[in-house]
Amino acid sequence: MINSPLLLPVVMALAELVGAAFYVASPQGPTRNIVACFGLGFALCIVLIDVTPDATEDYLAGWAFLALGSAVGAVLMFKGGRLGAEAGNTGAIVGMGLHNICEGIVLAAAGPAVSPLIFTAAVAHKLPEGMVVFSLADRLPMAGRWLLAVGLSLLIPIGTVVDFPEEIKKPLLAFAAGVLALALTKALSVMFGLGNPAAAAADRRAVAGAVTGGAVVAGLTCLVI
Ligand SMILES: [Zn+2]
Fold it and tell me: What is the pLDDT of residue 195?
């Protein structure tokens, strides 16, 4: 057991960047798609079991903001054309940023003690989130994606020290969770080749396996941190 208030926020921020680097380093094509699908399955599970409870706990109106975010996300991602999809992805990235702030708040509340299990879970949690941020920002130039990834990862240590008012954080987080869920669903539907009869059954199985793997890892890490 190590006692350091800075250790976990810094390690989690770095792990997010390593996840982003892993995504970039994976060869384009099937391999990168599988990496992306693992991240998407992970993030979808995180929205369900981590972000949504954060946004709605002791805050009933959070469900209304969540529904509104989902409706706006659905219109943007499925009916908004290219511009709508870009706006939806931007909203999803904002959601990941808010989630990082919440993680910082949780770390500050949990105290400075870090066990090997918590350390491992924190790293396993942030690697896929780094992959997801990079895959959601795939329309930006590479330098812009890195700037974004670094900025988002810094929100974890910032969340440990800055006091964000709940009445602003919760509705924003709930709305962003809705947009995020729809952006992830859209990305997954593309990966599954829905609407594309040429997509091979083997590819779909690989996608389903990666998505399931990501969701399982997400569930396990959320049990610990
Ligand atoms: Zn997270």
Answer: 65
